[in-house]
Each structure stands twice: as C-alpha cells, then as structure tokens.
Fold this protein.
Amino acid sequence: MSNKIATAGNTGKKVRSDCFVTLELKDSGGIQIDQKSKVEVMYGKANIELCKDILSFFGIENALLTLEDKGAVPLVIAARIEAVIKQLIDTDKEYLLEFIEENNYTSEKEQFRFSRLYLPGNSPSMMLNAGIHDPNGIILDLEDSVAFTKKKEAQLLVRNALRGIDFYGAERMVRINQFPKGLEDLKYLIPHNVHMLLVPKCEGADQIKQLEEKIEKIKSEHKITRPLLLMPIIESALGVEKAFEIATASENVVAMAIGLEDYTADLGARRTNEAVESFYARTRMVNACKAAHIQAIDSVFSDVGDMDALRENVKVSKGLGFEGMGCIHPRQIKVIHESFAPEADEIDKAKKIVNAFIDATEKGLGVVSLGTKMIDPPVVKRAEKTIHLATSLGLISENWRDEFINIAE
C-alpha cells in the first residue's frame, strides 16, 4: 500500500479552540502520534488516548498522526480525526462521543424567535460559549460561512457540537447547504436532536417536500418520533413570488426568513440600511407568513458596530409584521430582544382589550367593547398575544389582571 496523507482542521496564529490534524497511513510500524500543544501538560495524555481510541475504532493499525492542538476540546479533536480518516478510507462508521443531558430538550412551533445567532459550522471557538449570550436560537451554519473544501469537516463538527456543547436552552438550528446538496447534511443532524433546519435559497414547495421525504426516511431508520421544524429562507425573486406556496408546503414549516444579501444581488440592487430596495419582498413575505399562520423572520443586519441603526431597523421590521431577525454578532442580541418586546403603551392597551373581552365573556355578552369602540376578534387575539409575550419576558406578572382591576378601582 502506498502512503496516503490527509489533513483537517484549522491552524494559524489567530486560531483557538481548534486543532490541525495530519494523518499518514502506512504499511507497517504501528501507531505513532506526534502532539504539539500548549496545554500538553494538562491534556496531552488524554488527547493521545483519544487519538488511539479513534484510530482503533476505525481499524487503523499503522499510521502517523500529527496533532497540532490550539486548545481544542475532545469533541473537536474527535471530529477532526474522523474527518481525516474518512478522506482516506471508505467507511460509514461514526465515532460518537457522549450526548450530554443538557441538550435533551425539544422545541415548540409557537416559541419566540426574536433572535437567532449565526455561527460558522467549521469554527468551534464561536460555538463553545454561544449559549451564554441568551439568543432564542443558535444556528450552526453549513452553507455560506463554510468553504467548499471544508464542507465534510463541518458536517462532523456540527454533529459533535449538537451532541456535546451546552447551548443553554437555545433552539438548536442548523442551516443546511443549498438544495439538493443540503440533503447530504441530514444524516449528520437528524439523529442528534437538531430542532430546526434552515433551508437556504428556497424557491418552491417541491424542495420542502423532497427534503421532508429524506427527513422521514432517516427518522424512521433511527426510530425518531419528535417533530423536526423547518424555516425556509427566501433569497431570490422567484422565492418571493412563491412565498405562500413555500409557507404552506408542510405543517413543519413554522417560520420563514428572508435573506436580503442574496435577494438584492438577485435584483442587481445595492442593499441599504433604509431597505427601500427590499420593501416589496419583505412585505410580500410577511403577508404570506401571516396568511399561512407562521412566523415571519427578518434578515440579519450586517453593521455589527452601529447599535442605533440596528435599533431603528428592528423598529421598522416589527412595524412590518416581522417577529424576529438574524444576528451575526452576540452584541446584537440584547438590542433585538429589547426592540421586539412590547412597549409600555402596547401592553397597557392590550390589558384593557383583554380585560374587556374577559369581562364581556363572564357576563355572557356577544359584543366586546372598550369605551365607545367595538372590539373585533382579531384585535382581541393580537392583544392576547401581546399579553402572553409580555408575561413570558417578565414585563408583567402572571396575575396582571388582578393588579389591573385593583388599579382601575
């Protein structure tokens, strides 16, 4: 057998929480491991044992493995070693580390999705502590943020992250690759409690249906019964025109997002903070979402240094009917949460409407009125949603009605 060499991982002065692995298969000589690590005194022995265990798991008996460690945790090292092995041998085996108990939670269709934090799927340093920033959702990205030559490595790293990184209760999302390549990502995600898949550049219901066929096949193989939610991303003129078709393609489509970088590129227009160039697309998509009774999620705001512009952008977004937006930096999360939360006058008005509705219901009245104005059911429903949101965010107490009535009296 001639020598075979493969590499995986990231290296360089700015790289942290990662490693760079080189594997050379040989005809003889047994297993040799060359480790270069600044934390070798503390973790060197454990890392070598992990390397040996993975090589043995895949039946490799003669090889030279070089591990250049930049502070990688075991799940990262394991993903990198598995990546080099699978470049050199044909195998369907998976080396799976423990699935931590903290990640054994589910997601709901109606939960709040004010913020979703994008993390490059091949950059472990950004994943490890992402949950402490308290985003509603964490997106491990396999698409645009991952170089084409690193796609296979990212699949393994994201799989291990889903199993071994504590995301502190955030909704566990993955943006798969553009259809149909994204179908290849599914086997690395579905068995590992991913909550939601983001479907980029979606342009028709047929893509959602083909995706779900593959999802159901994998769920059946692994005896998975929990639902897997979907968020198509509209990023083209064709996607905008087919927004309602996409929104109603499956009961598992619970939200739909718009991606303005690709959309404006498709138009041949320049993206601006004022977003006049995307006004039609955003309102068209919001309308489709509301008609389909799903959440409308706005695009990311790309200027991570301008919080005032972000706050104004969220205000406009909320006014158009969006219920959340993407983040590309943790510092954006707080501003987005504060801006999407109901304001004091909204809460006060909602209290009055809901109180009037409850009072009319208790008295058996068929008409709900507030002062001299009749209140329609959609108005009541919107007010109830505001109350629910305010209660969930701790802006008012669960006993708000008793407090409200006492103040009124």
